[in-house]
Amino acid sequence: MNLKPETLSKIDEVITHYPTKRSAMLPLLHLIQEDIGYLPEDTSEWIAAKLDLQPINVLEVITFYPMFRQKPIGRRHVKVCRTLSCALLGGYKTCAAFEKEFHTHLGEVSPDGEVTVDFVECLASCGTAPVVMIDDELHEKVDVAKAKQLSDQIRAEAKQR
Amino acid sequence: MPAPAQRRIIFQHIDEPGYTNDIGCYVRNGGYEVLKKAVGRKPEELIDEVKKSGLRGRGGAGFPCGVKWGLVDRKSGKPIYLIVNADESEPGTFKDRYIMHQDPHQLIEGTMISCFANNVKQAYIYIRGEMPHGARILEKAIAEARAANFVGPNILGTGYSCEIFVHRGAGAYICGEETGLIESLEGKRANPRIKPPYFPAVLGLYQCPTIVNNVETLCHVKYIAEHGGEAYSKIGTPGNTGTRIFCVSGHVQRPGYYEFPAGTITMGQLLNEVCGGPLPGRTFKAVIPGGSSAKILRFGERFKGKRKVGAEMLDYDWGVEDVPMDFDSLGMIGTMGGSGGVIVMDDTVNMVEALANINAFYSHESCGQCTPCREGSLWMKKISSRMVHGLARPEDAALLKSVADQIPGRTICAFGEACSWPTQSFIAKFGDEFKQYSETKKTAKPEGAHELV
Description:
The complex is a heterodimer. By secondary structure, chain A is of the alpha+beta class. Chain A has seven helices and four strands. In chain A, strand 3 (132-134) and strand 4 form a beta hairpin. Chain A starts with a helix and ends with a helix. Chain B is an alpha/beta fold. Chain B has helices at 23-28, 33-38, 43-53, 65-70, 96-102, 104-117, 132-147, 178-185, 200-203, 215-227, 229-233, 267-274, 327-332, 351-365, 371-389, 396-405, 415-435, 437-440; strands at 81-86, 122-127, 163-168, 210-214, 236-237, 240-241, 243-250, 256-261, 284-288, 297-298, 302-309, 312-319, 341-346. Chain B has a five-stranded mixed beta sheet with strand order 8-7-13-9-10, covered by helices on one side. A four-stranded parallel beta sheet of chain B has the order 3-2-1-4, with helices on both faces. In chain B, strand 7 and strand 8 form a beta hairpin. The two termini of chain B are 39 Å apart. At the A-B interface, helix 2, helix 4, helix 5 and helix 6 of A face strand 3, strand 7, strand 13 and helix 14 of B.
């Protein structure tokens, strides 16, 4: 695995937070995913060696938690809340708007490689529904018009790269 | 009767102009003074204050916090851990988010007081993975508190040491269940543990005695340490002390968070006055009072019975609007106060579609270790989703109910109840709508209705 030096030092630091190494499982998976963008196939072996475990102990965790992914996604990750409070105020329309804007389907990388749109469960901001997370940022009251505006912003930021 | 005034003790500084989440601002507003006094007291005294306060856990179950602390095995010789349950995931609930983002030091002070009271040397804040900013804010706040000697070794020169670390989840709802959370913190799948023997107070994190408290609960502890358990118990009503934060979402004019003395406001006052009533041209149809697993209430139904008021037993005859919003009253009418997440649905909502949305959530979130829950939640989702997207049959209501009825009481954790209560209550309250759905589908949807599944 080709991890950045700062990721490696964060990994060594976070292991010290726990009396047993195995507890560092989720932090390590987050750090690797943040560094590489997803969890490549050798993640299980690498973490198992680091934490004195068997690879299956890691793989079973990766496959349990919805935030971990074993395949690359688009450069930007759009997560639309699907759960009741957001749906009551148009979350399904918001999601469809993002799919249309980026000519993509749920869970797929858009043809330009820029965006993956996912429908996710409750993001705990039900009072400002519908909500959307774009990478780490929460966006509130995202109706179809705001979804278009956010999509324009994503495209503008892509052009500057 | 007009609604009572809000009393913000936990949300005192939320959305206050100029209030920032750094330690300087917190200290300028009197922050950490309570901790300074608390570490000069005997830990048992602090536990007694919490017991006297009558504080009930704010994560959903409403279990008395003092009792929880009283169950901790203090003779095992093993370290005692405290875990802050910041895995706010119950649909409809969004209070802890604002505490952590806008007033993180309030949580840290409450956590440190609780740790001191229980002789805890290591605490973890388990925050849900979808709150990366919240995790960073808490990490920064802990670092500031450590620099000021409120966290870490030899706190305020007392010889007492305690560390806090932030631990991020990764998108699994079941981590809100305390034994699932503990498994997750140990680096495993979040499969809840069976009780007995795995009561966290005895065999929790690393098989050591462990206290798991919700974010808001720990903020209440700070208030109790400051003002005393007795003063706290005078806020609210007997058995439902302190304030409650209601998170209102769905079809009201002013959704949001509102803090009131517990038991002093009715559902009608909350929805009609505080939240401004239904959207223009609509009427309220149903409300889920305590997070999406709580049993639904139908506007128009009535609840009758006897209840204890002081020493007397009095008759009550309530419509949904008349129900006081406290744990006991909501429990009496067959639902629960839960986490305070109030989800409102108006007359544009079809109940089959709303249930299909909820069932999709619970089938996605079942951890899968108990067959009745894993299979039952999936079949409830499949049946309700088929009704919406494919063929709907009049007998589906009975089929859904029969699946739901076979889950509760047959699973390791309360998820079995959580996933079956929506189906059971939707069909009990709106059975006709399920039976007629095949006909309803042929007609046009009401104006303003949204796709729900």
